Amino acid sequence: MRALRREYLQALDLQPWALRAPAPAPGEPALPGAAAALALPAAPGDTDWASLRGRVSVCTRCALSTTRTQTVFGVGNERADWFVVGEAPGAEEDKQGEPFVGRAGQLLNSMLRAIGLARDAVFIANVLKCRPPNNRDPSAAEVAECLPYLEQQLALVKPKIVLVVGRIAAQSLLGSEAPLGKLRQQTHRFGAARVPLVVTYHPAYLLRSPAEKRKAWEDLKYARKVALNG
Ligand code: SF4
Predict the structure, then answer these.
(1) Residue ranges lining ligand 1, Cβ < 6 Å
(2) Which residues of 57-76 are buried (b: 16+ CB within 10 A; e: fewer)?
(3) CB–CB of 127/170 below 8 Å?
(4) To test ligand 1's pocket by mutation, which of 53, 55, 57, 71 has the most ligand atoms within 8 angstroms of CB?
């Protein structure tokens, strides 16, 4: 198990010796950071996976329906403790119909394995179910149209923690314009169930900015603590 973890930390370009979480000081709370409560409206509509999948697969609520190859619903364990949320499908995801494939997907898998999670043990989805052309940022209107699907997925999975990767997804879910650096390392709460929500960097960003991988590892350790402690 230790060798496995070492392997995944190496995939993050991190040295295992530098990664031990400091023991909390006496009296220090187990979960640092402020809890920001959010109360988004309940998602309308579907109460089961089949009808939700069906609706998403033929959705034309925004113009991205005219440029997509296919919708990218999400994959994974429908009863997962961890729900990972990214921004939107890219070219490869649009082609394959699955979120987080390609190099960024492989790095996400490594990040999850570093904290003891197999890809198929979590549920993975994006805020948007269709690819924005040329990988542009989603518009506010597109997010508003698509977010109810993600809210419904969250209501069905009932995870113990939501791990949000990347600025766009974090800002969309939190209704915030704060930079990612101000949103990470704290426990937000999402929706009526007040599910703990933790933010970290998008793996595609980490591929471009490997110096930030150490911060991502700190975020993953933080998220693991939140998942354990609620
Ligand atoms: S991005 Fe979301 S709202 Fe827009 S067409 Fe696709 S599934 Fe529908």
Answers:
(1) 56, 59-62, 64-65, 71, 128-130, 142, 145-146
(2) eebebbebeeebeebbbbbb
(3) no
(4) 71
Determine the 3-state secondary structure of 87 from DSSP: coil
Pairing mode, if any, of strands 82-86 and 123-126? parallel
| pLDDT greater than 60 at residue 27 | no
Query: Ligand 1: distance of its center to the CA of 117 in Å?
Result: 29
What kind and span of H or E run contains 167? helix 167-174
The first and second tokens of residue 132, run together, are: 């924005």
Query: Does pLDDT of 6 surpass 80?
Result: no
How far does residue 149's CA lie from ligand 1's centre (Å)?
9
Among candidates 188, 104, 106, 175, which has minimal Cα distance to 143?
Answer: 175
For the chain, the 3-state helix, strand and coil shares in percent, each to the nearest 5, are 45, 10, 40
| 208 pLDDT above the threshold of 70 | yes
Least confident of 25-34, 85-94, 135-144, 211-220: 25-34
**What is the sign, positive or negative, of the torsion defined by CA atoms of 222, 210, 80, 1?**
negative
- What is the pTM for the complete model shown? 0.84
